[in-house]
Amino acid sequence: MRPILILAVGISGLVVLAGCQMNLSVGPRARADAIAPTESNTPPPDASRDRKDVFVPASRNSTQYEGRLLTNVQRHSFTEDGRDFDPDVDAGGQTLVFASTRYAEHPDLFLKNVEGLTLTQLTSDPADDVQPRFSPDSASVVFASNRSGSWDIWTIKRDGTERTQLTAEATDEMAPCWSPDGSQIAYTVWGPRSGQWEIWTLTVAEPGVRHFLAYGMFPSWSSDGKRIAFQRPRQRGSRWFSIWTITLEDGEARQPTEIAFSDSAACVAPRWSPNGEWVVYSALMGGAQQYAELWMVDATRGLRFRLSDGAEPAFNPTWGANGRVYYVSPRAGAENIWSLSVDARGAEVAPVAAAAKPDNAPMR
After folding, report:
1. Contact residues for 270 (Cβ-Cβ < 8 A; gap 6+)
2. Which pTM value belongs to this model?
3. What's the pLDDT tens digit per position in 261-287?
4. Is the CATH number of domain 6-53+77-274+314-322 2.60.40.1510?
C-alpha cells in the first residue's frame, strides 16, 4: 500500500504526515516523501510503517517572526496505549473527532467533548479509518479508509449511521476535506500517469463527478470557499514540501502562490483558520535529531509566527472555533491531542533572535 502523505503527516503517516518518515499523523501515514519527496517517477513509500516520534524545527531568517502566542496549553485525550491522532473540531467548537489505536492495532474513529473524558466510537472495522473531517453543518464526518482494499473516501453520519463510500478506484484516495457549503470534497490521490500527488474534487451528491485542481496533497478549503491551501514539493534543489494556495474561479485553480517554505525543513499539513486569514502548519526536519514545530502564516502577507518552541514534537494541527489550535504530541509519552490558545488578531511579534535558535537548527 502506498502512503499518502506526511503528517501530519499522517497514512498512519499520510495517514500521518503527508509523506514523512516521521510518525506524523494525517491519515494513512505519509512519511518519507513528505520530508524528502520521492522522485516524480517513483511510487510513494509504504505508509503502513511505524514512524519515529521525534521531529525537527524549521529554520529561521529575517522574514520569519516568532510570536508570543503560546499560552494555556491544554490536554484533550489521555491514552497510554496506542495513539490518538488526526483531530478535527466541529463548527461549534465543542466536539473532537479523531483516529485512535488505543483499543486496536488498526485505527478507528472516535468522538468526544473537547473538555470531557467520555468517548463515543464512531467506526469499528478491522481495517484503518483515518483523517476524519466534520462537515460544515457538523452532521457528518468524511474520512479515509482502506476497508475496501485500497484507500478510499467515505462519509458517515455523526450518530454512526449512513456510512457511504464515495470513491472505489484501485488508486489511493486520501486526506479529504469539505467545501464550506458541504457540496464538494477535495482529496489527495497518487496519479499513476503523472507520477505525482494530485488534488481532485468530487461532488457529494454525484461522487462520480470529479475535477482535477492541482498537483499537491493535504488540501484545506478556506471558509469563504475561494481558496485551497495544500502542500507541494519543490521540483529541484532540496525538494522540501512548502505550503501553497490556489484561488478558485468557476471551479478552476488560479494564482498558485507559495506562502510558507524553508530550505531545511518540510512545511506540511496546512489548515485554514476560521476567519480565512491564517494557515497553521507543521515544520518538520529529519536527521540525527528530529523535531516538529507548529507555525502560523498570514496567507496574504506571508508573515510567519512560531506557535511551539520545539521542546516537544507538535504536529497534525487543526483550528477550533474557540481561538485554539488543536494538535498531536507525544509530550506526555504516547501521542495524544493537545491545544494551545492563539490570538492571531493583534499579537505583538518580534524578529526571531539568534539566542532563540536551537543549537541544531540551521539558519537560512
Report:
1. 218, 220, 229, 230, 231, 243, 260, 279, 280, 281
2. 0.80
3. 988 899 999 999 999 999 999 999 875
4. no
